[in-house]
Specification:
The chain has 77 residues and is mainly α. The chain has helices spanning 8-26, 32-47, 56-72. Helix 1 runs antiparallel to helix 2 (32-47) and helix 1 packs parallel to helix 3. The protein is elongated. The protein starts with 7 loop residues before the first helix and ends in a 5-residue tail after the last helix.
C-alpha cells in the first residue's frame, strides 16, 4: 500500500490533525484538550487504514513532536 492508496479525505484528516498537534506544541501555553482530541482522532483514523504500516511515518512524526514537547513542559497526557 502506498500513500496514493489512502483516500483524499483520510489524508486531509491525518494532515490536519498532525498540523494541529505540531502547532500546539509550539505554543507557549498549549491546550491539553486540543492535543488529546487531535491524538485521539489520529489514532482512530490510523486504525481504519487497512494496512496501517503505511501510517508509521505519520506516527513517527507524532512521536518525535511529542517527545520534544513533553520533555520541554510539565504536561503529562
Amino acid at each position: 500500500m502506498k500513500e496514493s492508496d489512502i483516500d483524499e479525505d483520510t489524508k486531509e484528516i491525518l494532515l490536519a490533525n498532525l498540523n494541529t498537534v505540531e502547532a500546539e506544541t509550539k505554543k507557549e501555553n498549549p491546550k491539553k484538550s486540543i492535543m488529546k482530541t487531535a491524538m485521539s482522532t489520529l489514532s482512530t483514523v490510523i486504525k481504519g487504514i487497512p494496512e496501517a504500516v503505511v501510517a508509521l511515518e505519520g506516527v513517527q512524526k507524532i512521536m518525535d513532536i511529542f517527545t520534544v514537547f513533553l520533555t520541554s513542559t510539565s504536561i503529562s497526557l
